TrEMBL record:
Mitochondrial S-adenosyl-L-methionine/S-adenosyl-L-homocysteine antiporter. Mediates the exchange of cytosolic S-adenosyl-L-methionine, the predominant methyl-group donor for macromolecule methylation processes, for mitochondrial S-adenosylhomocysteine(SAH), a by-product of methylation reactions. It comes from Myotis myotis (Greater mouse-eared bat). Keywords: Membrane, Mitochondrion, Mitochondrion inner membrane, Repeat, Transmembrane, Transmembrane helix, Transport. SUPFAM superfamilies: Mitochondrial carrier (SSF103506). GO terms for cellular component: mitochondrial inner membrane. The chain crosses the membrane at residues 6-27, 48-69. This is Mitochondrial S-adenosylmethionine carrier protein. It is a multi-pass membrane protein. The keyword DNA repair does not apply. Belongs to the mitochondrial carrier (TC 2.A.29) family.
Length: 253
């Protein structure tokens, strides 16, 4: 395997990251609002679905570029024969290293973006300033551990599957896959990885959106998941105003 070009990885990864993030941003906003503790409607519903897009636009290029530079270089460093059974392991290690590096850029951007998505009336710069004023630099990195814990399993599933699907398709047609074929493989691999890691993504969102100095803001993933698990169980109690409520509607609940 030839040593990857720094410029090629930088530009290709950056442009790809910006394109994907901006095109799919409305869906990302909807996802964040669905995962937020206040619920979809109170978080903004379908209103202001581009809230937080400046943060995504600024962070996407360096984030994606950092990932793909690291990914390509680790693959090159761990070069093995293309027929080796260790190829999936190489892709897993390369993707994991890429995520750890990229999250140094991604997490501050993600924290600001997600808070803007659930507070559409607030400007992105205002949210950024409030975080620095109230929590300092550590506030921008709240959820780093949970993000890495989500992104590494995601990449461990996505990238080996993507590479394997491309290799299988190339073998079946006896030539290297076209760009659109690689995209189809990537879409399937990414979708499958998203399904597997959604619980971790919910925990990440809850941690990033939690109020400062709350228990969830501490960054404990298991605690955040436990809170998500308990929330539906508490809804009847909250709606009835307590266990002593005598109304028939509460008894039905």
């Amino acid at each position: 395997m030839d040593r990857p070009g720094f410029t090629a990885s930088l530009v290709a990864g950056g442009v790809a990251g910006v394109s994907v993030d901006l095109i799919l941003f409305p869906l990302d906003t909807i996802k964040t609002r669905l995962q937020s503790p206040q619920g979809f409607n109170k978080a903004g519903g379908f209103h202001g679905i581009y809230a937080g897009v400046p943060s995504a636009a600024i962070g996407s290029f360096p984030n994606a570029a950092a990932f793909f530079i690291t990914y390509d270089y680790v693959k090159w460093f761990l070069r093995t024969d293309s027929s080796s059974h260790l190829m999936p392991v190489k892709h897993m290690l390369a993707a994991s290293a890429g995520e750890v590096v990229a999250c140094l850029i991604r997490v501050p951007s993600e924290v600001v973006k997600q808070r803007a998505q659930v507070s559409a009336s607030s400007r992105t710069f205002q949210i950024f300033s409030n975080i620095l004023y109230q929590e300092g630099i550590p506030g921008l990195y709240r959820g780093y551990k949970s993000t890495v814990l989500r992104e590494i399993p995601f990449s461990l599933v996505q990238f080996p599957l993507w590479e394997s699907l491309k290799a299988l398709w190339s073998w079946r047609q006896d030539h290297v896959v076209e760009s659109w074929q690689s995209a189809v493989c990537g879409a399937f691999a990414g979708g499958f990885a998203a399904v597997v890691t959604t619980p971790l993504d919910v925990a990440k969102t809850r941690i990033m959106l939690a109020k400062a100095r709350s228990s969830t803001a501490g960054g404990n993933v298991l605690s955040a998941l436990h809170g998500v698990w308990r929330t539906p169980l508490l809804q009847p109690h909250l709606q009835c105003g307590g266990e002593s409520s005598p109304s028939r509607s509460c008894q039905a609940l």
